[in-house]
Amino acid sequence: MATDTVTSAPILGSATRSKILKNFIDGEWVESVSGETFENQNPADTRDLVGIFQKSGKQDIDAAIEAAKRAFAKWRLVPAPRRAEIVYRAAEMLIERKEEYARDMTREMGKILKETRGDVQEAIDTAYYMAGEGRRMFGPTTPSELPNKFAMAIRQPLGVCAMITPWNFPMAIPSWKLLPAIVCGNTCVIKPAQDTPLSTFNLVRTLTDAGVPRGVLNIVSGFGSRLGAPLMEHPDVRAISLTGSTDVGRIVGTTAAKSFKHCSLELGGKNPMIVLDDANLELALDGGLWGGFGTTGQRCTATSRIIVQKGVYGEFAHRYVERAKTLKIGNGLDESVDMGPAINEAQLKTDLNYVEIGRSEGAKLLCGGHRLEQGEFKYGWFMEPTVFGDVDPKMRIAQEEIFGPVVSIIPCDNLEHAIQIANDIEYGLSSALYTKDVNRAFKAMRDLHAGITYINAPTIGAEVHLPFGGVKATGNGHREGGIGAIDFYTEWKSVYVDYSDKLQKAQIDRGD
Ligand code: NAD
C-alpha cells in the first residue's frame, strides 16, 4: 500500500536492493527532480516498510521520454532476433530470482506466495514466448497485381511507448507490455501502480542485467493523478497501454485520442461462472472458491458472480459457504495461508461498503462480511471471505466491480437464462461454465459476451500465448498476450518493389 506522505528522506543507495528506490532513467538510478518520495508498506503488516519510492512529477516524465526517444534511434536498428535473445536471457535470470521476487511481491501487495510465484512465472512465460516472436514477427508477402512487381508488408516499431499498470499483477502485467514492446523495437516509459512499484523494478533490473541497453526501459514511480497527463499528452509518446479501472481507462482513452496515439485499454470485470444441474459439483466448488477468493478477489478475472441452476442451487450454496468459512486468512508469507489482505485501506473500505450495499438491497449474507482486526490481523487490511446468496442480477453487488473477496450467488432456470444474466452487465472480460453436456458447452462458448470463456474451469487462469482482454466496458478491442501484443506494438508498412523498369499504374494498367 502506498502512503501519500511526502518525506524528505535522503536518497541513500543507488542499488534497487536498498529500501529507497530511485527512478530508472537513461540507465541510471536517479531521484525525482523535486526530491519528494512516498512510502510503501506491507498490507498484511503496515509496520513492515517495503520501500521508499520517488514521488515523481512532469520533469521526471519528460526526462524519461527524452531518454527513450534517444535510445529508440539505435534500438530500432538492432535485429529483432538479437533483441529477443536479451529477453530470453532475462527469462533464465528470472528463474534464478523467482523465489526472492515472489517474496518481495507478497510483501508489497499481500497475495500468498503460491500466487506471487505464479506472477513471476507469468513474466518468465511471457519472456520465453516473446523471445520466440523475435524470430517470427511475420507479415504477408503477396503477389502484386502488376507484372515484375513485388509486394509485402513489414512490421515496424512505433517509437516511445508509455505503460501504466495496476497493482494486482505487479510483475506479470508489466511483462505483458514491456517484453513485446522491446522485442518489436520500441522503447518504454513505465509508471507502475503506486502500491506495487518494487516488482516492476525487479523486472526492469533483470532485463537490464540481461543486457537491455540504457534508455530502452525507463521507470518513473508516483501517482497516476499527477503523472498521467504529462505521460499521455507528451508529443513524443506514440502508444499508451493501460491496465486499470474503467474510470481511469475513460480518461486515458479520451486523452490518447486527441493526439491519435495508439491506445490499449485492459479494464474492469464482473465475471460470471455458470453451474448447471449436470455439473461435477465438487469441481465447480473447487473452481468457484479459487476464482472467488484467489488474490483476495482482486483479479480483473475474479469469479465474482456464480450463477447456479435451481436443481443444484441449494446444495452448491451450502457447500460453497461451508468451504469459504474454512479458508485460512493471514500474511501471505505463511505457506499455510489461503487468502491475504486487501491491497490497502481504501480497498478494504470499498469491500466493506459493498457488504452494506448488498444487505440494504436485500441479498442474503451467507457468510463473512466483517473486517478482521484482532491479534495477528491488527496491522493489516484483512476481511472475511464473504458470500451473498439469493442475489438478484440487477443488484449493485451483482453489477459493479467490487475487487474484493465478495461473491454473489445468483439462481437461474436453465442455460439460456444463465447466459442472459451473465451478459446483462457493462463488462465482458472472463466467463465460465460447468457442465458435462458438450452441446451446452459449445452454445455458451458462442453466446457469452466475454473475451475469455472457460469450460469446467473458473474464470481465472489465463495463459500468456493466447489473447487476453475483454469486450464492452472491459476494453477498447485490443488484446494482450499472444500475437495481439505484437499487433499492438508494431505498425504495418506496405512495401512495393517495381523491377519492370517502366511506370506501371495500379488499377489502371490492367492490360485489358
Ligand atoms: P486504477 O485504475 O486505479 O490504477 C491503474 C493505474 O492507473 C495506476 O498505475 C494508477 O496510478 C494509474 N492512474 C490513476 N489515475 C490516473 C489518471 N488520471 N491518468 C493516468 N493514469 C492514472 O486501477 P488499480 O486499482 O491499480 O487496479 C484495479 C483495476 O484494474 C480493476 O478495475 C481491475 O479490474 C483492473 N485490471 C484489469 C485487468 C485487465 O487485464 N483487464 C488486469 C488487472 C487489473
Describe this structure in words.
This protein is α/β, with parallel strands linked by helices. It has two domains: 6-137 and 151-245 and 485-493, Aldehyde Dehydrogenase, Chain A, domain 1 (3-Layer(aba) Sandwich); 271-455, 3-Layer(aba) Sandwich (Aldehyde Dehydrogenase, Chain A, domain 2), CATH 3.40.309. Helices cover 38% and strands 23% of the residues. It has 14 helices and 23 strands. The chain has helices at residues 58-75, 80-109, 113-133, 172-183, 197-210, 224-233, 246-258, 281-293, 310-325, 345-361, 396-399, 415-423, 438-447, 482-488, and strands at 2-7, 20-21, 23-25, 28-30, 37-42, 45-54, 141-143, 149-157, 160-164, 187-191, 217-219, 237-243, 262-266, 271-275, 303-309, 364-367, 371-372, 382-383, 386-389, 406-412, 430-434, 452-455, 490-498. The strands form six sheets. Strands 16-19-20-15-14-21-22 form a seven-stranded mixed sheet, with helices on both faces. The protein has a five-stranded parallel sheet with strand order 11-10-9-12-13, with helices on both faces. A four-stranded mixed sheet has the order 1-5-6-2. Strand 3 and strand 4 (28-30) form a beta hairpin. Helix 8 (281-293) packs across helix 9. The longest helix is centred in the first third of the chain and has 30 residues, at 80-109. It is globular, with a radius of gyration of 24 Å. It binds nicotinamide-adenine-dinucleotide. Nicotinamide-adenine-dinucleotide is lined by residues 164-169, 191, 193-194, 223-225, 228, 243-245, 248, 251-252, 266-269, 300, 401, 403, 429, 474.
